[in-house]
Amino acid sequence: MSVSAKKRIWGWMAFDWAQQPYYTLGLTFIFGPYFAAVAADWFTASGSTTPEADAQSLWSLGSAIAGVIIAISAPFMGAWADLSGRKIPWIAFFSVIYVVSSAFLWGLTPDGATLTISLIIFYIGFIAAESGLNFVNAILPSLGTDKEVGKISGSASAFGYWGGVISLFIMLLLLAEGDSGKTLLGIDPIFGLDASTREGTRSVGPFIAIWYLVFMIPFFLWVRDDTSTPRRKTSIGEIVPELIRAVKSIGQSRSLTSFLVGSMLYRDALNALYAFGGVYAKLVLGWATMQIGVFGIIGAITAAIVTWIGGIADKRYGPKTVITSAIVVLMVVCTIIVSMSRTHIGPIALPEGSNLPDIIFYICGAAIGGAGGALYSASRSLMVRHTNPERPAEAFGLFALTGKATAFLAPMMIGITTYATGSNQLGFIPVIILFLIGLLMLRWVNSEGDRAAWSAH
Question: How far apart are the C-alpha atoms of 53 and 421, rounded to whole Å?
């Protein structure tokens, strides 16, 4: 492999490292739980009798709306990128939105005065992150053979999780304050940040923005659009027929159809676990920021290790085997989450002050991180095997469409179930159902995809 090819792979992998903090710090372990705490306090002050459930429902509303927007826009932008022959300008465009949105998360004050606008800003950044990811994924098929792609995807995802681990360590050690007003090192937040107004925790937004700006430099230096694809101007009139053709083509392959439908459901369930894991820890177990942070570190380290192992297993056994194993683990975790509270594990009552729920949830966090990372990486690899080499952005646009077409479903079902039962734990029952259906759909998926069919054409 040439030096330029190796640089291109490392530049491509740098994206996962640069972007991961939006999910690790923003979605799951720092901003998400902080938003939940601020929202719960705001609902309490407003006279709500179920403030925790209301806070979880509000967070799920933002996630659902963002999912709909991503689902509608992704295939359109993918078709446009394939026809125009350009992906890097799109990535740069969404990078700007990502950085600006991240920086503005600083504005969520503890009094909840900016609660709604902060929710909107966060999910604008999330939409930008996911949209940029679609174009980055579309570059993956050009980085190696089908066998190599699985390992590259797993290594990149693992690399990204290590970025999440390190960024979370920095936040907890130096910036995010606990209930005592001190960081994990027992010091005041650095840079003179005021712990009484949660400035240490709120700095997560600017921190994410700066991290991305610094670590995306290798990507923009070493990754270029494929020069073999001619560049040309493209109109909306050309895009719509191509998009219609692409959607119709899904039904021509039973394997592709089954994979997209199945992954649509199990990825929706996985995203719900990521989005609500920290919120659950805050609202159900009453964890402080530091505990949630440690939970995040355990999950991210496990994700980095298991995802890397999953990449090796992908190369040896194929992505379908990795996906199936990961889903089974996640279903077991969800069953535990549904049955557990601070006072009970299933029908078993716990003595007051028991730390058993904490220990179990730490283990669950490790399982979610490891299985979730391997699931995403292997899914990306299996999509490559179903991708027309001439239209990779379009293919991953459809992958994003099906990944987000029901993205509103899990958050909406969690929100409705939580509201109907008044229980944050029972609100996770729909996640188990989505994982189960996704697992069943894999029965009709060809582990080698449709590459043989594309070669024949």
Answer: 9
Over range 172-187, report the average pLDDT: 90
* Inter-residue contact 294 to 284 (CB < 8 Å): no
Name the token pair of 3. 């030096």
Average pLDDT (370-393) is 81
Residue with tokens 């993205």: 407
Phi first, then psi, for residue 345 (nearest 5°) are: -125, 100
Confidence band of 438 (pLDDT split at 50, 70, 90): very high
Q: Which of 402, 397, 426, 400 is nearest to 414 (CA)?
A: 426
d(CA 252, CA 254): 7
- Helices 236-250 and 254-283, axial angle in degrees (round to 10): 100
Assigned token pair, 6: 């190796």
Identify any residues that bridge with 345 across adjacent strands, giving them in sequence order: 340, 348
Closest alpha carbon to 109 in 209, 25, 196: 196
Euclidean distance between CA atoms 269 and 253, whole angstroms: 24
pTM of the model as a whole: 0.76
Q: What is the residue whose two structure tokens read 């919120």?
A: 279
Q: For 308-357, what is each residue's pLDDT tens digit?
A: 898 888 888 889 999 999 999 999 988 888 888 777 787 888 888 888 88
Residues 6+ apart with CB under 8 A from 388: 394, 395, 454
For residue 85, the cross-strand partners are none
pLDDT number for residue 454: 47
Q: CA 134, CA 233: separation in Å to the nearest integer?
A: 21
pLDDT tens across 406-421, in order?
A: 666 777 787 788 878 8
The pLDDT-based confidence of 426 (bands split at 50, 70, 90) is confident
d(CA 167, CA 24): 9
Cβ proximity of 417 and 427 under 8 Å:
yes
pLDDT band for position 456 (cuts 50, 70, 90)? very low
Q: Residue 146 in contact with residue 447, Cβ under 8 Å? A: no
Query: What gap in Å lies between CA 102 and CA 99, rounded to an integer?
Result: 5
